[in-house]
Backbone:
């Protein structure tokens, strides 16, 4: 991955791979998961979250939180098409200001 924006969280890193329109959760040189998105009318649409079942809880939440932190820094908005991202935002009200449309309209 050659793109920018790394958000550190313990030993894990969230890397924004803009060329492939995804955020990647890395541990060392190992990819633990990724969040795919597309951009429509300047709004990021999170469309799919992939995290392997390796017996470690919270990887998906760590990935989504890191991606949303980057979105916030860049002053962008999101539409959570992915059900996992939508549930994460529902449970974590501090991210709801990033929504391009209200949760009840999704």
Residues:
């Amino acid at each position: 991955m050659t793109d920018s924006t790394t958000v550190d969280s313990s030993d894990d890193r969230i890397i924004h791979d803009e060329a492939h329109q995804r955020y990647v959760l890395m541990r060392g040189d190992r990819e633990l998961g990724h969040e795919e998105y597309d951009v429509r009318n300047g709004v990021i649409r999170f469309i799919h979250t992939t995290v392997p079942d390796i017996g470690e809880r919270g990887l998906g939440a760590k990935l989504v939180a890191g991606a949303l932190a980057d979105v916030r820094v860049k002053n962008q908005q999101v539409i959570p098409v992915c059900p996992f991202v939508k549930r994460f935002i529902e449970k974590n009200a501090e991210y709801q200001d990033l929504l391009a449309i209200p949760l009840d309209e999704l």
About this structure: The helical segments are 59-73, 83-91.
